[in-house]
Amino acid sequence: MKNVTLFILVLMIINGQAQTQRSYETNPDRKRTFNWLFGDSIWLDYRTNPPIQKNGSHLKALESSTVLSDTGGNLLLYSDGVTVWNKNHKIIKNGTGLNGNESSSQGSLFIPQPNNDSIVYLFTTDWQGKSKGFCYNKIILNKNGDSSTVVEKNIKLLPSVFESISATKHANGIWTWVVVRNASGKGINAFLITDKGLINCGIYSESQANVVYDDIGSQSISTFSNDGSNYIISFVIGLDYFEILNFDNLRGQFTSKSISGIVTPTAITFTKDNKYCYLAERDFNLYRIDCKDWNKVAVNNHNDSFMFVGSRMNPYNQIEFNIFDSMFMGRVVNSEQANPKFIRKGLKLNKKATNGLPNFDNSYNNTLGVNFIYKINCSTHQVEFNGQDTFNANNYLWKIKKVFGGSWQNIGTTKKLIYSFTDTGLYTAQFIASNGSIKDTTTKQIVIGDKIPKSILGRDTGYCKGSFPTLTLKAPQGLHCIYWNTDSTSQSITINQAGRYIATITTASLCQISDTVNLYEDTILLKPQIIRHGDSLLSSIKATKYTWKRDNIVISHSPSIRLNKTGIYQLEISGNGGCQSKSDTLSISKLSVATLSVQTIDIYPNPVTENLIIEGLNPDTIYNLYILDNTGKTSLTLLGVIHTVKLTIPVTNLSNGIYTIQIKDNNYKQTIKKFIKQ
Question: What is the arrangement of strands in the sheet containing 602-604, beginning at the earlier edge strand?
Fold first, then answer.
């Protein structure tokens, strides 16, 4: 019995190690939250618990801070919304004078472009809803950090917004939603970052809360649940309430659930399992809210001797609270249990905290047992599914059904799957993974919209120099958004000069495709020279179109021609744009290869099946014979045929088709005939 127990223990250890090695497969971004830089140059490295407190940070932010680490937990960038520093604590190129504000509560947020860590977006908000608004900055991140550069700076998306920025993943598990609230009215805007970049026209929703804009009322704290299904925003000063909304991470739309009163809410954090949310008043109470019924219960271990000014879950599922102007952070442990515990001095700090904690994409905390990501090909309706699990699954099942009136279909049993949808509409996709008695399932919705043609702008076209016309390039109608590389967002653009034009379109179903058309002026203006090589004539210049004339009659449009007659030859070339140029004439009075008399040589039978007979040869002449297929490739060669009038050639080994036979004598005369092998 002891041996069995020991064996089970060993298995548990092995399985535990295997699970630890795979624990981030369903969320490779989990370690992006390992570095926290905030306040008065505080730097916490959460690769250990408790975290290592490091020196070197140049951040001195009153509130706003955001940090980007790579998927291995290594620091890459940090910012207060005004300046960007790299991992070496140096300001990156063009990384100052951004439109954020260090006093904006959650006024900065890094989001890497999906599938491309070398492109990073930094979003910023102005404080108290002021006129710098909601902006993005595009950063090209280099490996050594010191040559990283802000290449697009202070691009305004909205004119006046609340201070807080929040983010979560799209339903496909790849793209990212970035959300802000309008500074007045009921509007909420969700912007999507895809693998092609930022879609700069957002999805607009309305909430219940109708906020009248003022400098104080625009201060806020907001956050998504880790799975992205719920969103909470607090209106910090003067309004004293918070609003809970459902979020559709497939379409980017919000629906309001409820509004609840609370005195100056300044800290909101969901537990890892998304069952509870902790919400704190600035200097009074700490509440735990049940996400089923949204009832709040006070955690009775707080007094008004200090102020909550932000909270966030650390990588070890403990909720940290920034305590204003202190040398420590509060902490909730056992946050998912029946009796959570708040520790006033949960983590002592080497430096002074101010307001707020680093702003991250909350979906970085979402680690499911089973998950999947998917990519849609907008032109073919082909979808690539990639399953993920945390328990070394070895059996898989994929199922789909139409949401309205459909029934479940099994579509695959491999971890990765490519499936072609045969109809448009809203579908539910399900991925089931198992390993022995362990089994888990995840379900997502997918929209299959109308197919988009691969080419929406047409073909590359050239125009003769000096005659470039005024052109209109059009994208399809009925789009959610279009962005041209000319910075236009119109359905069509008018151009009058050569260039490379790119349109990135997003349909109403948020499927996305890019197309490029090159419009250019022809450069083929030089006069071509005719080059003679044996019995061939060639052009000295490469062109798009060739026109060969003999005695002013067009005889070929090939790049080169074979001489078989004397005469006056001339070449005309042109490019895609129609620019033309002519060569001088070339007189051919003698061919290097004369022609044998056709009448003296005969071949039969034609068509032939077994033996081809050549008759009429001169027994005193040496001949070389070549049989060529219809591509010009030599299929049979006979050299030095002498002393014969009639020659029999077996052709049974030749494939069926049309062949050319060349017969040349020792004086370089030749005759050419064709025959059919069948």
Answer: 602-604, 611-615, 646-650
Give the CA count within 13 Å in the CB-facing half-sphere of 590: 1
pTM as predicted? 0.76
Please state, in angstroms and as integers, the Cα–Cα distance from residue 235 to each residue in 125, 205, 229, 261, 264, following that order.
16, 18, 20, 10, 7
pLDDT of 576-628, one tens digit each?
777 888 999 999 887 765 555 544 688 888 888 899 888 888 777 788 888 88
Spell out where 275-369 has E strands: 276-281, 286-290, 296-298, 308-313, 319-323, 328-333, 341-348
- Decide if 34 contacts 49 (C-beta within 8 A): no
Q: Which helix (H) or strand (E) holds 503?
A: strand 499-506
Mean pLDDT of 128-142: 93
Judging by DSSP bridges, how do beta strands 586-588 and 623-628 pair with one another? unpaired
CA distance 124 to 434: 43
Q: Which residues pair with 389 in a beta bridge?
A: 370
3-state SS, residue 158: strand
Query: Which among 131, 72, 137, 88 has a CA at the least distance from the CA of 108?
Result: 137
Instruction: Give the residue among 212, 210, 208, 205 at the shortest CA–CA distance from 258.
Output: 208
Tokens of 582: 């002519």
Number of H helices, E strands in the chain: 1, 54
Q: How confident is the model at residue 239 (pLDDT cuts 50, 70, 90)?
A: low
Of 70, 73, 75, nearest to 43 (Cα)?
75
Q: Taking a C-beta distance cutoff of 8 angstroms, is the pair 127, 162 a contact?
A: no
Cα distance between the two ends of the chain: 82
- Strands of the sheet with 657-665, listed across from one edge: 634-641, 623-628, 657-665, 670-677
In angstroms, the CA 244 to CA 265 distance is 13
For 219, phi then psi, to 5°, come to: -75, 135
Locate 361 and state its tokens.
């994409």
Contacts of 525 (CB under 8 A, 6+ apart): 465, 579, 581
Please tell me whether residue 12 adopts helix, strand or coil conformation: helix
Domains identified in the chain and CATH numbers: 27-365 (2.130.10.10), 370-448 (2.60.40.10), 461-521 (no CATH), 530-588 (no CATH), 598-677 (2.60.40.3080)
Quote the strand ranges of 507-606, DSSP E.
Answer: 512-521, 530-533, 536-539, 545-550, 553-556, 560-562, 567-574, 580-582, 586-588, 602-604
| pLDDT one-digit tens code per residue, 66-108 | 999 999 999 999 999 999 999 999 999 999 999 999 889 899 9
Rg of the chain taking only CA atoms, in angstroms:
37
Closest CA to 179 of 106, 236, 113, 235: 106
Q: What is the pLDDT of residue 675?
A: 86
Q: In this structure, which amino acid lies at residue 130?
A: K
pLDDT surpasses 60 at 3 = no
| Tens-digit pLDDT profile for residues 410-431 | 999 999 999 999 999 999 999 9
